[in-house]
TrEMBL record:
Keywords: DNA-binding, Transcription, Transcription regulation. Transmembrane segments: none annotated. Gene3D superfamilies: Homeodomain-like, Jelly Rolls. The keyword Transcription regulation applies. It holds the Pfam family HTH_18. The lineage of its organism: Bacteria, Bacillati, Bacillota, Bacilli, Bacillales. One of its GO terms (molecular function) is DNA-binding transcription factor activity. It comes from Lederbergia galactosidilytica. This is HTH araC/xylS-type domain-containing protein. Residues 180-279 form the HTH araC/xylS-type domain.
Amino acid sequence: MKDWLRPNYRMKSIGEQEFAFHSHTQFEIYFFHQGDCKYLIHHSIYELHPGDIIIMDGLTAHRANPSKFDLYERSVVHFSADWIQPVIEELRMPELLSPFKEMSNCLLRGQDDGERELILQSIKSMVQLMNEEYSFLLRPEVEAELKILLLTILMQIYKLSKKENHQLAMPKSEKVLHVENIAQFIQVHFRNSISLEDISTELNLSKFYLSRIFKEVTGTTVMDYVMTCRLNQVKFDLEMSPQRTLIEIATESGFESQAHFSRFFKKRVGMTPSEYRRKKLKS
């Protein structure tokens, strides 16, 4: 059940907690409550306002970068499309998943209090039900109730996505625009050998300035972002291309040394590339 549905209601944190770039196969609904937070998806950066909702396909690398000086509060739902798909097909409402597939990574802003409250109450009810009934999750009535709650959220998300105000023109500072350009350049070129000098020359920014603003906005260094892009590509290929060798995948993702690749992967993922592939293929 945890892989099918994982709701979290009003999670709070403050201080030095690190939120690493990550990706997953589940769709994600992210609701921002309070704090000072920038959210990074691929090479886009969103400066969040209370009440903002982000819908994500999950596969695109993403991370939150909240201020360590402010309380950071959010609600999040991860869910498997395969788990809810039979119910959606029975209802003949395939469009309920279209925001995640067609809009993929999108910020929804401007919903009224009633719309927000319906989504939040459904998330809260999910958490309560899973806590109360955790030892009975195989009971059909419990799973049915969780699916009804998720459908309520998906219906609301779908209606919000159809509104004209779902993609507001949000002005961005020159610094944020520079960081988006840096991230976009890395996304295009991470499979090749890449250096700060390359980025500096391409974007006509000093190495010191681009390093400083990238760290300030994203919470990570430029070269760590390069390595994260490579790692996410490797993880995707290990799962989706079982016929390819580890060396092929690592090399084509930008890793020049097999030994360095193996050490880096185990340090970041907690298991070897071979163990990761076996785990994913079994699931």
